[in-house]
Amino acid sequence: MSEQTVPLLRVRDLAKTFTLHTQGGVTLPVLRRVSLRVDAGECVALAGPSGSGKSTLLRAVYGNYKAKGGQILVRHRDRLVDMVSAGPREVLDVRRVSVGHVSQFLRVIPRVPAEEVVAEPLLALGVPRNQALERARALLARLKIPPRLWPLSPVTFSGGEQQRVNVARGFIGGHTILLLDEPTASLDAASRGVVVQLIREARERGAALLGTFHDADARAMVATRVVSLAEAEAA
Amino acid sequence: MSERPLLSVRGLTKRYGERTGCVDVGFDLWPGEVLGVVGESGSGKTTILHCLSGRTAATAGSATFVQRDGTVVDLLRMPEAARRRLARTDWAMVQQNPRDGLRMSVTAGANVGEPLMALGARHYGEIRGRALDWLGQVEIPLDRIDDLPATFSGGMQQRLQIARSLVTRPRMVFMDEPTGGLDVSVQARLLDLLRGLVADLGLAAIVVTHDLAVTRLLAHRLLVMRGGEIVESGLTDQILDDPQHPYSQLLVSSVLPP
Amino acid sequence: MSAYNFAYLDEQTKRMIRRAILKAIAIPGYQVPFGSREMPLSYGWGTGGVQVTASVIGPDDVLKVIDQGADDTTNAVSIRHFFARTTGVRTTTRTDEATLIQTRHRIPETPLCAGQIMVFQVPIPEPLRWLEPRETETRTMHALEEYGVMHVRLYEDITQHGRVATAYDYPVRVNGRYIMRPSPIPKFDNPKLDRSPALLLFGAGREKRIYAVPPWTPVKSLDFDDHPFTIERWEEACALCGSRESFLDEVIVDDKGGRIFVCSDTDYCGRRREHLA
Fold first, then answer.
1. Nearest Cβ partner of B118 from C148, C160, C226?
2. Shortest CA gap A189–chain B (Å)
3. Could you tell me the pLDDT band of residue A2, with boundaries at 50, 70 and 90?
4. pLDDT of B6 above 80
5. Helix (H, G, I), strand (E, B) or coil at A208
6. d(CA C265, CA C67)
7. C-alpha span between A170 and A166 (Å, rounded)
8. Residue A1 has pLDDT above 50, yes or no
């Protein structure tokens, strides 16, 4: 790492515990003082057994889970925002502009066509509607979703098709930080290849990516660094 | 991000003698955002709307609202005349039962046109044109414009109420259980419509509901209420996916999976 | 002379009604509540008009009473006799000779002049009642000028009939402020209300309201920009006097459906015939 690399994401001593009040107040400490950084152009793959908290970490960075302690600094509009202490509106702004997310499951809203699902992040950034739809369609085409599916709601799509819509939606915004939770799950080889390309292109434009990749081949092709959660907790 | 909130509520309290409707409720609402207020019956969520809309007088608190010209007024202390005027121009209310928000004895077109006429619109053709336009936006077949709302299904009545409340382009909307009492498929359609309208019109909205699925779809932020108090507030997806307060966890875990 | 007080009402009642009238004149078109008294005629037969007339009439007045434009119908005759008996005041059928005219459902064709008073008999004074049954709410709506619903009424007419179908009791805006029902006069007569030199008083006995339009007050009939207010027109002329300007009644003359059109204003028609003879 040279002095010129820009830390886009820095996690410091992140702690996350779940307290299940509905089950007698049992506590589940999942993340204990995790620290890591991701610089521009890097794709850091999280490794560790399932249940170890990889998804939890990604969700905490996204602001979907509430951290109990530590800091999550993301570069947003020329400053660093701490997602742990940021207020809800700021988190929404960070998600809109700087931090993209490919989740494991596509949350499907009935009646919204696939091309609209994918175009939405661009619309939120103020891109004119027809431009946004054009770019959405181009990306869907790249991911081998046939045009006849574009005006349909993903409700009826197969798991693989839904996941590709998910990927498209995550990448289209050109965010500087991308969080990828099993982006190649349920995809065939050809589609996995496209995702790998998308990740490479993102790295090339200077984005910082943090993700989990169950598929070892895909991980080998995209990750610039592999960090195990255990290591990150000791760091 | 540095714009000021459209509505700032502080210390809102409503007591009915010994009973409390809501206690010390405070929140901000920014232009273009949807705030969900969830809780079970008796949680005080509807009381908040009633106080803000002037339907009932608050016991204490303030609700400062920025008018179109930039001046700030306290909704809880405004004279009734001024508040009724504001209710015609700046904000709107969508009732749970559409019959409460519609004039059942006049046609659909007249229902949508009336707020325009109340603000001085005097061209029949234009009024009718705008009514047709709005019926289209809420997906009511245009040939129903001269029908009475009593001949509409519940879902269509609700969509008509939405058209009537949004036709004057208010900046803020209050919705009280907008999908209550509707069939599930009808709910989905209505929610999708609301999502689109709120985004297109840049509306600020407060949506009161007991249905968490509605909030996930519509709301950016949530207030969880219980016993008249706010027990948790934050991002919608964060509260629904990682609820902190015991009551929030109970609410979320009680939802039956589809 | 009868054993009644002048004009039947006791002086305290007249005072109460006069106060209401003064308030009504001060706020053109605003409905003033008053303590409507039991009169020797039933509700619906002009008790409001009679009480207003009884409160303003003086020994030097000349009274005309018309019903649907005619001086000789039963009701007009009864009311005229009532005042003759209780006041001894001179009565007339001639519009231009009267100082005080009580009317049901018409304004005379002969133009009124300054110094004359028209008293209208009103069944329902509240223009918003068709949509809003609550008195508390209609009063608030008037106070806050929430008159959107009146145009809704016109909108519905145009939607249903292609034009505003209201032919009687057509709502008007008085002095740019209050919306008023001018009583069931035909809309043909509405233009006569606008800037009339006479004082117009309206009395509703059953509903217990008095309202007024002082002389020279602007009175505008409600309409839409693209559906402007128009009055009735006939192709026929009056069969008796030939007038093409007056409001015509349709009269069936035989069992075969034969009909003629005659002036509703008997005084106007009769005088025209005098001139033509």
1. C148
2. 32
3. very low
4. yes
5. strand
6. 9
7. 6
8. no
What mean pLDDT is reported for chain B?
92
Please tell me which of the candidates B192, B220, B238 has its beta carbon nearest to residue A63.
Answer: B238
Contacts of B249 in chain A (CB under 8 A): 20-22
Distance, CA of B82 to CA of A202 (rounded, Å): 54
**B104 in reach of chain C (CB within 8 A):** no
d(CA A184, CA B68): 49
Cα–Cα distance list, B83 to B54, B115, B175, C95, C249 (Å): 8, 15, 18, 50, 49
- B246 interaction partners in chain A (CB closer than 8 Å): 21-22
ipTM of the complex: 0.89
**Is C263 marked active-site?**
yes
Look at A64 and B220 and tell me if their CB atoms are within 8 Å. no
The yes-or-no answer on residue C29 being catalytic is yes
The amino acid occupying position C136 is T
Q: Which tokens is C248 given?
A: 């015509």
Residue B257 in this model has a pLDDT that exceeds 80: no
Q: Which long-range contacts (CB under 8 A, 24 or more apart) does C259-264 make?
A: C261/C234, C261/C236, C261/C237, C262/C238, C263/C69, C263/C109, C263/C238, C264/C68, C264/C69, C264/C70, C264/C106
Q: What is the pLDDT of residue B1?
A: 47
Is C69 part of the annotated catalytic residue set?
A: no
**pLDDT (mean) for B151-163:** 94
pLDDT band with cut points at 50, 70 and 90 for residue B258? low
Nearest to A131 by CA among A121, A141, A145: A121
Q: For chain C, which residues score pLDDT lower than 50?
A: none
CA atoms of C270 and C247, how far apart (whole Å):
14
User: B215: helix, coil or strand?
Assistant: helix
CB of B237 less than 8 A from some CB of A: yes
**Confidence band for B2, pLDDT divided at 50, 70 and 90:** low
Which tops the pLDDT comparison, A7 or A163? Answer: A163
- Asked if the Cβ–Cβ distance from B249 to A21 is below 8 Å, we say yes
If you compute the radius of gyration of chain A from its CA atoms, what whole number of angstroms results? 18
Q: Over the stretch A22-53, which tens digit does the pLDDT of each residue have?
A: 888 899 999 999 999 999 999 999 998 888 89
Q: Does C222 touch chain B (CB under 8 A)?
A: no
Q: How many angstroms separate the CA atoms of B18 and B21, rounded?
A: 10
What pLDDT score does C171 carry? 95
Scanning B57-148, the segments in alpha helix (DSSP H) are: 80-89, 98-101, 108-118, 124-137
Q: How confident is the model at residue B191 (pLDDT cuts 50, 70, 90)?
A: confident
Q: Which residues from chain B sit within 8 angstroms of residue A111, using beta carbons? A: 188-189, 192
Interface of C with B in 140-179 (CB under 8 A): 143-144, 146-149, 151-152, 155-156, 158-160
Q: Is the pLDDT of residue A105 over 80?
A: no
Query: How would residue A216 be classed by pLDDT, with cut points 50, 70 and 90?
Result: confident
Residue A54 CA neighbour count, 13 Å, CB half: 24
Dihedrals phi, psi of B22, to nearest 5 degrees: -150, 155
Chain C residues in contact with B109 by the CB 8 A cut-off are 155, 159
- Tell me the average pLDDT across B100-127: 95
For residue C170, give every residue at least 6 positions away whose Cβ sits within 8 Å of its Cβ, in sequence order, or none: C182, C187, C190, C221, C222, C229
Identity of the amino acid at C176: G
Closest by CA to B4, choosing from B250, B152, B198, B204, is B204
The pair of structure tokens assigned to B59 is 């016991």
Best mean pLDDT range from A180-184, B55-59, B148-152, B186-190: B148-152
Sheet bearing B60-66, strands edge to edge: B19-29, B7-16, B60-66, B72-74
Does C132 lie at the interface with B, CB-CB under 8 angstroms? no
Torsion on CA atoms B20, B26, B32, B38, rounded to nearest 10: -40
What are B135's two structure tokens? 């019926």
